[in-house]
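Subject line: Sequence and fold of a protein, written as structure tokens
Body of memo: The sequence and its backbone structure tokens, given next.
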Amino acid sequence: DYKEKTDLTAQKLSTAIVAALRGYQALEDLAALNRELENKVAERTEALQRSNTQLQESLSALEQGERAGRRVQFKLLPKPHWRFGGIDFAHRLLPSEFMSGDFIDYFAIDEHRAAFYIADVSGHGVASAFITVYLKRFIAASLEAHRLGLPSAIGHPANLLTQLNQELLRERVGKHIAIYYGVIDCRTSVMCAANAGAHPYPWFATLPGCRLLEARSTPAGLLPDSQYENHELTLPQQFRLLMCSDGVLEIPPAVPADVRCDQIRLALRADTAGIEAIEKVLDLQPDQPRPDDLAILLIGRDLGQ
């Protein structure tokens, strides 16, 4: 009986010791696993921190590049206010990002003619902004050809837009441009203009009232067989010609496009003081977030600038 109890006790003790050893080994294994996991987490955290630092540096470099690009693009713009032959030109350009896919320009062709255009490249941001530089170069080349006595369409809006359409398709830039281009002969007060898909249409205000200069067409760089037409208009002593990119239709607060167009039409007068009056009507804030680029071009006599 004693022997049985002794054997039983020894067996229990042995089992307990083995169980304890196994438990200790399990704890050691668990501790080792925890240490391994902690090391992996630490390594992963360090790697993520490095990646985050690199990402922040890349974003910072990209932002600096975009800021530099913005400065370059804005240097390509004309003066905010310009007078030629008794006619005033003024503009505003408000990008939705650092750089804009909208662009505006006006310049003298010769001693008595001035040209102007407002353009909206498809999309917005850096890629579209590059195309505005391309557009500026294209028109500058046509102007230079004219001044050198070479064949040029700089004074013929429809022909110029046709050439631009062909050039964009040939270069395969992957973008199209909605552009309204016009030439004003200050001696005769006659404006000749052509539209390549620009919308909304320009608002033309005279003393009798305000109307849209409707001219349906397709953007340049979209279709190879697009055709553009010249439209002539005699400018009275008092007038305002207002052009906006389609970003004007998305200014907060959101309203239907026809409502926004009516607001502008009712506010624009032949004696509207200047572009600041348009900004007030639209309640524009320079730092206000906007879903799309916004360009505004106002032409008239005695804008009060």
Q: What stands out?
A: The radius of gyration is 34 Å. The first helix runs from residue 2 to 75. The mean pLDDT is 83.
